[in-house]
Amino acid sequence: MATRTSPAPRGQQRTRSKGATAKGPTTTARGKTAAARPARASGSPKDQGRTTPATRQSEATPEPRQDDRPALPVRVIRATWMSLARLTGSAVRKFGHDVHPERELRRDGSGFFLLLLALAVAAVEWWALTGIIADSVHAAAGGTFGWMALLVPFMLGIGAVRLFRYPERQRANNRIAIGELFILFAGSGIAHLVGGQPTLSEGLDALWRAGGVVGFLVAGPLTALLTAWPVGILLSVVVFLGLLIITATPFRHIPSRLRALYEHLMGQDLADARGSGDHPEDAEEHDQSYLYAGHGSTATPKPKRRKRLFGKDQSEDRPADDDDTGFVGDEAFERAVVEDEERRARESGASESGAGEGGAAVPPGVRRPTKQERAAENLKRAQGIGVPESPDHAPAVPGRPPRNAPEGSTEAIDIVPAAKALLVPSTPVQPQAPPSPIPQRTEQLQLAGDVAYTLPPSDYLPAGTPPKERSEANDAVVAALTHTLDQFNVDARVTGFSRGPTVTRYEIELAPGTKVERVTALSKNISYAVASSDVRILSPIPGKSAIGIEIPNTDRETVSLGDVLRSGNARKTDHPMVMGVGKDVEGGFVVANLAKMPHLLVAGATGAGKSSFVNSMITSILMRSTPDEVRMVMVDPKRVELTAYEGVPHLITPIITSPKKAAEALQWVVREMDTRYDDLANYGYKHIDDFNKAVRNGKVVPPEGSKRVVRPYPYLLVIVDELADLMMVAPRDVEDSIVRITQLARAAGIHLVLATQRPSVDVVTGLIKANVPSRMAFATSSVTDSRVVLDQPGAEKLIGQGDALFLPMGASKTIRVQGAWVTESEIHRVVEHVKGQLQAVYREDVAVEAPKKQIDDDIGDDLDVLLQATELVVTTQFGSTSMLQRKLRVGFAKAGRLMDLLESRGVVGPSEGSKARDVLVKPDDLAPVLAAMRGDDPPAPSAAPREPVDLVADDLASRTQAVEYYDGADSGEGDEGSSDAWNLTGR
Ligand SMILES: Nc1ncnc2c1ncn2[C@@H]1O[C@H](COP(=O)(O)OP(=O)(O)OP(=O)(O)O)[C@@H](O)[C@H]1O
User: Fold this and answer.
1) Domains of the chain by range and CATH?
2) Looking at ligand 1, which atom is closest to the CA of residue 559?
3) Ligand 1 center–CA 612 separation, angstroms
4) Is position 611 annotated in a ligand binding site?
5) Is the CB of residue 819 below 6 angstroms from any atom belonging to ligand 1?
6) For the segment 562-602, what is each residue's pLDDT rounded down to a tens digit?
7) Partners of 717 in the beta sheet?
């Protein structure tokens, strides 16, 4: 219309005819473009205001004159049209849930046109209006589509509504238009078939009463090729395809969509239907939901409930070391991290109910707030105005009760068992731990020899400052995140946060159809908005349909070891190897059992908090265990980190500072492990816990005649504070020992903790890594280091000073923790307490290089038979070759060779012709001779020093942790498969 009446240049005409603006060419973006076009056509730059040469040139081009504008009536008509269009548009936009497309993108004029057209066709086709105009409309609509003209108003109406409400979603609009055309064309074809397939010769009236001209053109040629039925089926398929296109439904989602539609029509919740993963492929196109579900249905997928293999987790009923089942050793499904059972129960309850899962399920009938409302609400909350607080002051999340909600509430914490690793240790923000004792075992513990031993009192580790659950800093970050999301038009919202001591994890939930990548791609903008470079994004938070954004607290808190050891998790078990790790991002206490790890690698850059962690670990052990239960070997090449513990009775050797001696100590540990294994094998147990339990129950009886008193083995914890120093001195030997220990020592109750500030591949070799399953990564200086420690990036983003990622054995995801902190004076008090009760009794052979186990070349493959020969000759005190022949069933030559070997080892004297040789070894000395032949250590009767503490084992039954002691008088006696090398209690 404007084109015909307006003398304006073409570009301007085109733009105006789109009805983008009624304010003239410079009032909107479109207007500006329109004004610039004639200038460009004549070689002028866009900016006509500047006096550049180009501008001067443009001055020659005549500007559109005032009278180039459309005539007044045209302008009046257009203005009226646009006013009506806008009015209608805003009414349609208010219908259902409000939408607010940007002003520049609106296409109200076109929408209004389609709406009028729809009304016109409806008036004629539906309400049979007559008259000249009506006849023309019928000729156009009915003549074109026949019966299908009845659908035209409906389709035009859809188009109009889309243009009013979602003009910016061009792809979706085009898709719907294409789908409608499919239906219209194929439907007209079907109408043509059903209407008796009229021919042109029957006249237009006949065509109108069938499928119109389009129906004739579509179905006519096809029926010429095929019969009517196949064509009808084919066209029906096309109609169906059109429906799929309109609703953006891939074939595989047809059942779920139908179910969703059915449930929607029946007024049921759509949560399950959406859980089947039917997301339209295009994020832009989630708006199609209005066709079948309503835009506001935002349900998150309900996780499939996993069944437990058994009715209960085995660990639930079974205290670590003291039950009646006869089974104490490693249990299936046991984890390093000690969990809170109540919470676990609550979690499974939450996941089963599915209510509020992920925090995003909006109950039917509840309208999802608009972006503006959400922003306003978050900001209000951030400012603390007018928004009701949940009891724990954490932001309320729609559809779920607040954290710290009472038992039985459907708290929105869901843990899919496989992903539990990350969330298991945390309990929802706990108030300050009650000042109850550490741990539950506070009665006097009888050590072997009737020595009473008391664990250090819990007030040696005072409570820390009460944790904050929310601070102004958190509110400011929520506001910044909301603003960033809105700024980048990401349809997502901050639904809550959980504050840990060092970082807070903010939870972001996406509207259906919004891609996760839209948030993760904003990581730099988020860093910018919250002014922190250490932003870590978890997508998703395991077990939750939400994205987690971890942002350091500007007001971080220290986690006191005392609080961790007083937490419910720590007091739940009296296992002596349980240590306080720290607090996780949700403010839950993390407690781990070193025996279950079973070996731990601690790494991080200098100053990141490794030594503090090791201190917390050792102090935890001192606070919770007696020297009978846990013995330690400490290697401290830096010489300063562990000196505070010098002299504690839990040590079996002075703290080792020389890397060379440390390498030797590791070899001793290997020997200790072998000895324990021998005992396990001899007595038929698989794990040291089983063996110890049997010993306490009197089921382990030494062979008759043996004077050995069998006692339980303590756990042996080997702590290396700087692995790199050891690896520099003897890389091969250290690696060999570590690998051997880590491969086997678990069952022997020997556990390794390796700390290093150089987590490079030459220190933490592939072999070591493969055998040390639990990892604790403090801040590393590079992503490469993080990969070496954790096999994944992340540690390089930590913020130091105890901030760590904990990856316990079997976990697939790391737990972010703030390590527990224990001060030097606290350590001093604890150490003085334990030292005041018992003096350390060191074994001297620990750091002495063991003779290499080497079988002499001349023995070769004959070791077994030589050992038998030696035993025979020494016990009978008869050095006869023919006796060897007879008893060992060997030939003369072999017996002669054995006799020569015995002579060379000083067992028998030289040959005296046909006489038997002199036997030089007395039966009492047989054992060391056999050991020497085997290349073993000779048994060392004096290896375990007896001074200065002399404990007498006589009151085993009354003790909580009974430990039997070796009767030192016969320490040198050979006793198959065992020596006193295991005697770590070393009197
Ligand atoms: N858990 C923690 N809580 C609070 N502060 C901590 C914590 N851990 C470490 N820090 C702070 O970080 C400092 C350095 O810690 P630490 O000595 O443990 O680091 P490191 O990794 O052992 O360094 P290096 O390898 O040089 O010995 C401590 O002095 C303390 O101030």
Assistant:
1) 1-67 (no CATH), 71-246 (no CATH), 253-292 (no CATH), 314-327+340-423+470-552 (3.30.980.40), 559-670+711-837 (3.40.50.300), 860-934 (1.10.10.10)
2) 3
3) 5
4) yes
5) yes
6) 999 988 888 888 888 999 999 988 888 899 999 988 899 99
7) 632, 751
